[in-house]
Structure formats: C-alpha cells, structure tokens
Amino acid sequence: MKNILLFFFVLCFCGSARAQSHTTNSILLSGSIGTNSYKVKNTHYPSNNFKNYSNNILVSAGYQFDEHWTAGATYQYSWQKNYSESGKSQYFSTGPFVRYNHQISGIFSLFGQLESGYRKENNYNTSVSLRVFPGIRMDIKNGFALNFSLPGIGFSSSKIQASDLRSNQFSIGAGGSAFQLGVSKNFSL
Fold first, then answer.
1. pLDDT at 47
2. Which of 2, 11, 65, 99 could share a disulfide with 70, CB 3.0–4.6 Å?
3. What is the pTM assigned to this prediction?
4. What span, in angstroms and rounded, lies between the C-alpha atoms of 114 and 130?
C-alpha cells in the first residue's frame, strides 16, 4: 500500500504540478469503498471466538457553495460475514453530510466531514448514526480527485424490531471502516 501511495505522490508532483482550485457553485459526486476485519479471541470461552469481515460502497452527491463548504447526501450499501455463526448480513444507509475543505498545497487539501445516517439492516434492525472524520484530498486533473479518509468519532443507536433490545455505540478511531479510499469529481454549473 505504501508503494501505491508513493507512486501517486510522485505522479502528481511530476506530471501535474498546477494548482486546481475547488470549484465554487459546483456539484460534487464521489464514491468510495471500504473494508473492515476483526477477530475476537475469548480466552475464557474459546467456543465464543469469532471473525467478522465487512465491506461497504458509499456514493455521495453534494453542492459546493463556496471554495470550502459542501453539503449533500450519502447512500451506503454494506455487507458482512461472521465466520463463527456462518451469518451474513447486509444493510442500506442514507443521510446528509457537510464537508469543509482546506487547501494546503497545489494539489493537496485536508477535509473534515460530518455525516448522519438512517440504516436498515436485513429488513428488521434500524439505527441512526452521527460521525465526524478527517481526510486528505489529492487533486488529479479536470476536477477529479482521490480521497483518503480515516476513521473518526462516531455514535450510533440501534433497535431490533422484533424485541425490546436497543444498542448504543460510541467509537473513536476504529468505528466503521478503518480506511476509506474514494474518487470524486466536481462538475461546474
């Protein structure tokens, strides 16, 4: 992964050294993919050990109303597999977002994004969430950019429809995907 990042870094500085401004009054379309894997090892009850793998695809559309601020909506599809229970699940999530960009060099920008969502899982679990996270945007050419985002701070509240069970989760750092890689394009109006 380090070699890929280094390649993009060298490519951008050698091949496209011109500054690309964030277009005011434009439509921002973006998409990203993410993956997460974790393993729980219970030393007191080894039969309770499990592995979980999840993947997600996120699509966003927003309006960039000045050179720093963008607001819009996200749509996410995720699927996961729990290998101890041989269980599979999938969910859909949608909600608004607000993003603040700050350009730090000709092609690099830092951004912070606040997003909320409503999620429906396997047609019976519902949850609402709020998350804030940082990222780096690397402008490529003609309004295209690569986006690298890190996990941030998140809160979610879930309810299982067929019971009175509720779950509240607060996460710092490793909530959701550990790393997101995405592509975005600004379309001038």
1. 66
2. 99
3. 0.73
4. 7
